[in-house]
Known about the structure:
Elements: H1 2-5, H2 8-18, H3 24-30, H4 35-47, E1 54-58, E2 61-64, H5 69-72, H6 75-88, E3 99-101, E4 106-108, E5 110-114, E6 126-130, H7 163-167, H8 170-180, H9 186-193, H10 197-209, E7 213-216, E8 219-222, H11 224-227, H12 230-243, E9 252-256, E10 265-269, E11 281-283
Antiparallel strand pairs: 1-2, 3-4, 3-11, 5-10, 6-9, 7-8
Amino acid sequence: MLGVLGDEWTLLIVQQALLGATRYGEFTDALPVSHSVLSARLRTLVAEDLLARREYQSRPPRAEYPVTPRSRSLWPMLTAVWEWERTWVTEHLTALPAMRHTSCGADFSPILTCRACEATVIEKDVVAQWGPSGSWARSTPSTTHRRRSGDRRAGAGALFPQTMSVIGDRWGFALLVAAFVGIERFTDLQTELGAPPGTVAHRLATFTSEGILRSHGGRYRLTEKGRAFFPVLVCALEWAQRWYPDPEGPAVVVTHRGCGRRFHPALACDQCCGRLRGSQIMTA
């Protein structure tokens, strides 16, 4: 999941595709992306079955890129990312618009719920354990798309600047997951993740400066802003384990304390309390 989605342009291209863009020109009109980057990402997305490629003109050759079931099922994660950035990140060049639930007609914020019992869920309401195929070593990819520096926030990073600090970096994502399961000390983080000390120090400094973690007495704990990232994390995990299953079994097993059943996330509208569907969401 991190290897595929840990790239800001990939997320934004999929987002535009879910909003209806299918043709090359529609992506370039919507995003400040270079032709070389867009062409490369479209090839990757087709190879990963996140987009299909369908030629609609032969002279000259032109193709469109409709969404697939795999990319359509990303809408909960993208909705959670949009809400987190809109609510907690102030550095956007322009404010992100609200989301509208077309079913009730109201601007809304998504609420994380348990699909089994429909109760509202926060991070303290679930317990996570490694499954048969899970471990820190197996759950961090060896490579991801290389992140841009310097001008990264002038492009795609203008929309998802701090989200990419987390999911755009394999160690950053693993460290935040470790924080959610209660690992707080530098030495414990280094030992569990198997990351170099300098890597852990750099990621901790980044998350602290962005207000995702706070440091006190040698411990690094999630802030309110950091805890608010939980819906993104569990929606990403749900998508990853659906589309990248391991024959040995799941990597992570999450249980809802409230009902005692396996936790599968669902998003609801905070205005009408109805369960959200991707086709019912638009920007206001």
